[in-house]
Structure prediction request, 159 residues.
Amino acid sequence: MQSEHHSNLCCALEVTSDLPSEETIEQWLAEPIKLLILPTSIFLTNSAGFPVLSKRHQQLLYGFFSRSVDLVVCGRPRHDGEMLRYSQYLQHVYSQRPQVHAPAANLCAVCALEFAASGHSPPNMSAPATKIPQIPDRSSLQLSDSERFEQPYWDYLQV
Prediction:
């Protein structure tokens, strides 16, 4: 059966504080999810006062990092340093991920509509979103015959 959908249409998943069973998470990982929405309410506070995620939430992120998802933090900041603390923490979680050869995730911090309602502008929103570095360009490396054959496929996956 052929379904009619636009190729640029993707799924987003809002992560809640109570995660479902591992089987349900495995089903999520099989879906074409391109955006994870992380409300500030799911973040815990560590002993130093910084935002952190539970181990299960970290494991969920590790699963999606290998699928080149974008992360959006939304909601009113609940920690000092505004949204920057959340972005820094998510960059740390990304750096701690299990090493897998896959496209990198993109990371951006977005404040929720409460800022617009309160008349305040979100902090640091004039700066571009923080992007986690991509895999190095393979064209600058010495390639074997099989790697030269694979390169257009890798280039396609990076897009």
Notes: Residues 11-158 form a domain with the TIM Barrel fold (CATH 3.20.20.150). The chain has one domain: 11-158.
